[in-house]
Amino acid sequence: MFSWLGTDDRRRKDPEVFQTVSEGLKKLYKTKLLPLEEHYKFHEFHSPALEDADFDNKPMVLLVGQYSTGKTTFIRYLLEQDFPGMRIGPEPTTDSFIAVMQGDVEGVVPGNALVVDPKKPFRKLNAFGNAFLNRFVCAQLPNPVLESISVIDTPGILSGEKQRISRGYDFAAVLEWFAERVDRIILLFDAHKLDISDEFSEVIKALKNHEDKMRVVLNKADQIETQQLMRVYGALMWSLGKIVNTPEVIRVYIGSFWSHPLLIPDNRKLFEAEEQDLFRDIQSLPRNAALRKLNDLIKRARLAKVHAYIISSLKKEMPSVFGKDNKKKELINNLGDIYARIEREHQISPGDFPNLRKMQDQLQAQDFSKFQPLKSKLLETVEDMLANDIAQLMVLVRQEESQRPTQMVKGGAFEGTLHGPFGHGYGEGAGEGIDDAEWVVARDKPMYDEIFYTLSPVDGKITGANAKKEMVRSKLPNTVLGKIWKLADIDKDGMLDDEEFALANHLIKVKLEGHELPNELPSHLLPPSKRKVTE
């Protein structure tokens, strides 16, 4: 009897069962979070409702920067081919948002057609009106890079009030919409013009709450000398520190991202290392896409909860008949106090609350009498989702990652340095002598032999204790010397002969020159007399 009484409790305790992360995210959003958002008009204040395409789309990279910082050239460099609608020049050339995506045939899809395509994640951009849609296109082309990611090119940011007004749409709001949905935001700066205009400053502030997605590229760095580059880098970090209010320093990649010769090649090795780091970061996006979408859903759920508390508090304070307008003004002016009360009553972090000034502006146009009172069941459902269902999805994310082959961005510039002598670090450090017929260690072996014979070898070998006395003179940590010992003691007898000792000293030299040690000894470093043993 009354068995139905326990059904709801049982359902709350047992998390949902999902087959895939994407399916789970869609179902959780539609059944648990969306009802709360709709009940408290979340979409009118913060962000439009999510659609299936938002959960299914490939990882996206958003490029933002002032005009002529090399945004379009950067995309051209990654793809290693032109894309439809591409225009490059020193003047402000890209005047549109261009979504560069995979397609079987090259072509351009205009914005108005793009926002009615249910397979593309852009339908909610319809809210920004024709002024924006006339400046939004999708460039489609077959390219191996675009099989894994999509790239969003943006208009160059200008300075001055006039340019901002003449756009005809809220530029910062559009960028904020994209920032919520992309996996990586790359801010490009030109090493020659670091000034951050008013509009750029406003844009960076609009990207607040997405600092974890942001990376900075200091482009065209080959056009200035090393000493100037140090000053420019310092000035950039100082400027960013004033705008991006985070204790962590945003990662800055220095380089020249185009296919022309370096003007000043002094920092070539630095540029190569920075490029590889940036490429690795971009290549990791497909692998981490599901985790990013899960993280964004959690952030959205926390904001929706806080929004529900704010709207229901305002509803509760409103009089039922007289004095509504005066009370509305009073509540908007005292919104900071309402924030503080909600924070205390519900133990909510201050960082979860929406921007106070922006919220006050938005509330001016709202009819408070149409707000809904607090509905505990909706909030409990979202709490249950965060406490139980999300934990199950986290396990599923890890399972999907382990079952799939390594997902990485391939093709274009990502392939250029993978194989052959132009790979990063090829022929350097432990790779030195990789193509030589002679054993590379033999060059310095006479010097190492002199030391070897002072260490009292017995039957042509020295003990570990005697080898240690010499090796610690390098002042390298024991952990590093222990790794060198394992690599050099090829026959694993706990002693070193003259070739093994020479190899150990060569590896010490490699480490002291600032290179990383290999996890396994490369075949070209094997001493000639040991090659038959290992084969």
Automatic annotation (TrEMBL):
Main location group: membrane
Superkingdom: Eukaryota
Entry GO terms, CC: plasma membrane; recycling endosome membrane
Residue span, EH domain: 444-532
Protein name according to UniProt: EHD3 protein
Residues covered by the Dynamin-type G domain: 55-286
Organism: Penelope pileata
SUPFAM superfamilies named in the record: EF-hand, P-loop containing nucleoside triphosphate hydrolases
GO biological process annotation, one example: endocytosis
Lineage, uppermost ranks: Eukaryota, Metazoa, Chordata, Craniata, Vertebrata
GO terms for MF: ATP binding; calcium ion binding; GTP binding
Pfam families in alphabetical order: DUF5600, Dynamin_N, EH, EHD_N
Coiled coil stretches, renumbered: none
Record-linked InterPro entries: DUF5600 (IPR040990), Dynamin_N (IPR045063), EF-hand-dom_pair (IPR011992), EF_Hand_1_Ca_BS (IPR018247), EF_hand_dom (IPR002048), EH_dom (IPR000261), EHD_N (IPR031692), G_DYNAMIN_dom (IPR030381)
Topological category with respect to the lipid bilayer: Peripheral membrane protein
Signal sequence, start to end: none
PROSITE patterns according to UniProt: EF_HAND_1, EF_HAND_2, EH, G_DYNAMIN_2
Subcellular location: Cell membrane; Endosome membrane
